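Task: sequence in, structure out. Protein: histidine kinase.
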Amino acid sequence: MQLDTPNYLLSTPTARMKTPAAISLSIKPFPGWYCFLILMLLGGCHSAPPPPRYTIGFSQCTTADAWRQAMLAGMHKELSFYPNVRFRLKDAHDDSRRQQQQIQEFLREGIDLLIVSANEAEPITPIVEEVFNRGIPVVILDRRTTSRLYTAYVGGNNQEVGQTAGRYVGNLLRGRGQVLEVLGAPGASPALDRHQGFAQGLAAYPGVRLTAQVHGDWKRPSVMDNLPAVLREHPEIDLIFAHNDRMALGAYQVCKRLGLDQRIRVVGVDGLPGNQGGIQFVQDGVLTATLLYPPGGEEAIRTAMKILRHQSYDKENTLGTMVIDSTNVLTMKLQTEKLTSQQQDIQRQQELLQRQRATYASQQTVLYSLAAALLGVAVLGLLAFRAFRANRRSNHRLGEQNREIISQRNQLQEFSERAKVETEAKLRFFTNFSHELRTPLTLILGPVEEMLTAGPDLPAAHRHDLSLVRRNAQRLLQLVNQLMDFRKIDVGKMPVRATEGNLVAFVREIMDVFEKPARQRGITLRFLPAEPVIRLWFDVNILDKVFFNLLSNALKFTPEHGQITVSLQLEPGGQAVRVSVEDTGRGISDEDRAHIFEWFYQGQQAGARGSGMGLALALGLTRLHLGQLSFSSRPGQGSTFVVTLPLELPAALRQLEPTAAAYPALAVEEGFMPPAPTDPAAGAGAAEALVLVIEDNPDVNAFINQKLRPHFQVSTAFDGATGLRLAAESIPDLIVCDVMLPELSGLEVVAQLKGDWRTSHIPVVLLTARDAPEQQVEGVQAGADLYLTKPFNPTFLLESLRTLLANRDKLREHFRRELSLDTATVAPQRVDQKFLADLTAIVEANLTRSDLTVEDVARSLGISRVQLYRKVKAILGTGVTDFIQGIRLTKARQLLLNEDQTIAEVAYQLGFSSPSYFSTSFKARYQVSPSEFRALHTTPSP
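Result:
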């Protein structure tokens, strides 16, 4: 297909113009002398030379799909700013041979610049090189050729699109799931690049597996024909990634036809605006997300005009991409609708301008007719002058409006960047706020717990006051935890780990916690399960917070002698269960109803008010659990909150291992703490153990020092650098380190300790207020042996240190067994083993020296005698001298098997001062003399 765009459709646009009356030229009769005077005045004027005219040829592989049509529309929109450009389009209809012929036609017709979007790279490359070699600029659009002989490239990075999709899918599936990929045409470079990038993006998520692939040939019918069989073969698929939105729409229709649209999410590529575009599909819930892949029509024309005008330009113009999902689809749609509206205004202004020009043309005809009778040349000059002024004013207004559009676009970008900065600042605030609160809570709860548990003679009044302090400190800790849960939900870092259990028993246990406070206020608690056992998959930790907040809210707003009723029943159809919490409080006012689930909203009614987080947290956690939370209320008669949960959850949210039982939320306020594990053998020798405490908070440092000093030797440091220095000098048996340290963080301290063979064997316990699972994983990956969150139980910390010491004793025995007769040196698989290998090598290299000392060995290793002694003692439980003696005697067993050497020669070769000393040492070690050992292990000659 060949399309010649008329110049009058490509004339300069911009925003709004005046009405036709503001620009039209009216014809009035002129006296003959006036026309003659005008003719004389304008006779010497010269018009400005017209701008140069250019012809741009565009060889398009196809215009049959919406994305290519959007590319062409973008070109026309940009060309409207250049009325001096003739634009010619040839459509190859996905035929490479036809595209070659059409480019040859462009060469014969004569063009100033060629834009090519190749159907296939290799067949089109030779003709593109021929055009380039003839001196005609070539702009490659979207699909590259196999040659570098072109003037400029404009298009997206398909590999980056695939990588962005892979990372988004990994985060969306929370690191676990099965993915099906719908590829474009086989062999097409965009399909290959997007697949390669997608695989690279998924590589960061080992739990997400690319299970199957379907070739869709970029078209929806191919997907609808081929996909059903693959989905039946792989029912475990959680998400489908399609290489464009048309194939993604086909995948959604297949899933809907098979009843899988509620479980399988679909992600596409293109992100086009309009009713049939990817942005609308995301807003309608048809697609979970789409990745913006700009058509690049406007950018191609801008680059072409820079080349034709001999302005500076970039040879490689890679267009960016972004993910459009439920979080930003409304903004994107508003922006595209705004741009569409502005483009429509521009088109209307173009039509208005054409009508004005048509009016001007008709008036010009009349003026030519009058000029024959009444000095027509003068009238025509006057009209040309007035038209020039009108056009200049119009161009000036259009230029101002164009600058206004650019300014608005820059403001949108600035608002977007500012929103990102504010979001990041909010997350940092919550993290730091939690850390700052957990540290003083450690210093409050630790001593209070010890006084309550270790003071049997505590007066009743003091015990009551201390219990009040503990209860309110734990309440403050609960608020901090709610803030952290809010942050996790906000950034999508709250995982669901569901196990199968009895919901009736679970809710009953939570209600038991509220029995005592309800009885004290005369409130009746009623529990009405429709069935004795209702089994479903649920996350214990998440639903515990949901039901606790609902019951706590009901208890708070129910007056004395009121009633709270909790009922459980299956939904009709047996696919979900409803848990309702009904109270007889004062209800919710009309002005509060619309805001009841908003974060930090406390209501307008007088009376008891909470933190404004409980109901919002309950709603967020319920939705995270794929459930619903609703309420009904009548002022003065009470409120009812209903939690609806599905009986089944997707496999990605389940875990086979049972979750550790979560303690009821109010149990913490009642002072219940899980018993710390004890090991009678763990404390053996603990009093001689040296513990290094690295903590920048003086109060926490002193508190830990006070609790450990009766059981260990303790040294302290207030920053990471000092802690590393003391660890290298004193070689402690244990290190307790805070994560948030000035300059050098606790994670960096652990990494340096584990990387230094002098301190690599030392167990490290990290203390921190950062309790997110990914943060704990980060601490363990750095090499920490134990990760405790503040506030911590001092008894639990003490028993943990004793357990680590006991484990270190077992590791010593392992190293001792590794130094056997058959293992002269230890394989350096770990840092400690490498140290033993280096130490053994030094001793073996100096076995003949009878004057070999511990100082000599330490000097060879580059450390002090004390450091060497503590290192060997910590790993092997023996002294350096005993280690050297053991190496010599082990070597002696090997040499005694050789009858060519006498026992005296063996003794001197191994550095013993005399044969008698060698015999005494050998017998003390192996209970036989050297001669007896040789007789037992050698065969006499015949």
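The domain at 819-937 is CATH 1.10.10.60 (Arc Repressor Mutant, subunit A).
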